[in-house]
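Tutorial handout. Part one gives the primary structure; part two gives the three-dimensional structure as tokens.
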Amino acid sequence: MNDVQKAKKNIEVSVGESVRILRELQALSQNQLAEMSGIPQSTLSAIENNRVKLGVERAKVLARALNCHPAVLVFPGWELGQESSA
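Part two.
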């Protein structure tokens, strides 16, 4: 029984889902986040639904509005020690 490993408690989260999760955890509507960030609500919807790429500049703006580091939005599934495929 020593070769048994505990299961990881991870789920795959897209960039859009990470934006939505952080927005909802802060009890913000898309309209409220749009006002805080200056990004149109329609663009936020498209980002959250993975129809539009977030991009570095939008990530910086949203990170400021959501009080988080941009990497939290851009790399939602990143783990320390993860190897680069480049």
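Part three, for discussion. The helical segments are 15-25, 30-37, 41-48, 56-66, 70-74. The CA atoms of residues 8 and 28 lie 30 Å apart.
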